[in-house]
Amino acid sequence: MIPYGRQSINFSDVFGVAKQVAFRSLTQGTRIPEFEQNFANYVGSKYAVAVSSATAGLHLAVLAIELIPNSQIITSPISFVASSNAILYSKHRPLFIDIDKSSLNLDMKLVEQELNSNSLVKAIIPVHFAGLPCEMEQLAKLCNSKGIKIIEDAAHALGARYASGKKVGSCEFSDMTVFSFHPVKSITTGEGGMITTNSAELYKKLLRLRSHGINKLDDEFQLPLQASTKGVPNPWYYEMQELGFNYRMTEIQATLGISQLKRLSRFVQKRQSRVVWYQEALNPSLKFKPAQNTSTNTSAHHIFPIRIDFSKIMISRADLMKILKDRSVGSQVHYMPIPLHPYYQKLGYNVDKLPEAMSYYNEALTIPLYPNLKRFKQKRIVKILKEVIQ
Ligand SMILES: *Cc1c(COP(=O)(O)O)cnc(C)c1O
Questions:
Q1: Domains of the chain
Q2: Atom of ligand 1 nearest to the CA of 181
Q3: Which of 76, 99, 277, 351 has the fewest CB atoms within 10 Å, i.e. the most exposed one?
Q4: How many angstroms does the Cα of residue 86 sit away from the middle of ligand 1?
Q5: Distance in Å, CA 319 to ligand 1 centroid
Q6: What is this structure's pTM?
């Protein structure tokens, strides 16, 4: 079976993890700070905070900006549900803005219109869909003058670059950026995530919230009389200062992350060359085409979605996926618009103002893409698609 995405694990990943489990710390040791430091160096941010998943990271990031309850936060309908669930966890309200049909990212003109007419919007979570960075410079200009916070959902975009050339995660245009290390993403730690920021204040807050809200680093004690005896700090003493969580990553995961991060640039290059091959193979006369207009030197190429106008061909998407599966080719749909999920429907959401998201959803199919996908397999995938669709 050729899956739509998969991890690349080598011997040094395995050996490193085995050594860590056998002889070293399992949690709260030195591997996590090392992974964080290496990660911050790679993306070019001041700080990085490792967490148990990107979902946990998004939750903490939304908490860390401390909005008044019921604030509206803009996000994309074409994303994994975690992007907007993080808004609901914190008792705020997701506001879905339609996508641009060429980039499949938030339509910046519509975002601008919304920001100019709706003062309840306090933050935005742009999603770099399939690894293609949003127009962040433009977004930062729109948001900065209004004090609107920006949290990037970069779960797809580790290894991508902005038009400016800086890496996604450098937080050049945002308050925080969140990454995922789920096995289908750029690098993996099994489960895991990372938040990057350049703000010392946000950094300290994230460290606290990640571990029960207990004071960290040089945070001052709120009860100095209990904290020390005759001026000497009490060795047992710590303080819980706000309601946090246990969203920590393990040392085992961080070990795998350190090892994987060393190969990230290669992974991205390999994804890129496979996308270039697909783009050349899918000539414009075909009834299926790349769904996203990517500039190959900026995207991290997390997935490769194609678009098929099923109303013009004799076969349904469900049947096409079944034929692909019978011939050992995995495929998926990324994504059903979030407001179509029953939970969101019950909250009163609908897709009335999201025609581009709906049109994309109706035509979308993700075909396999991962660093070690062999060329002969790519050829087979395209051949089957041609046979079935044309
Ligand atoms: C995978 C993903 C997440 C969640 O990542 P986890 O690490 O699995 O929690 C969030 N947003 C997007 C866009 C994703 O693709």
A1: 11-263 (3.40.640.10), 265-389 (3.90.1150.10)
A2: 7
A3: 277
A4: 11
A5: 28
A6: 0.97
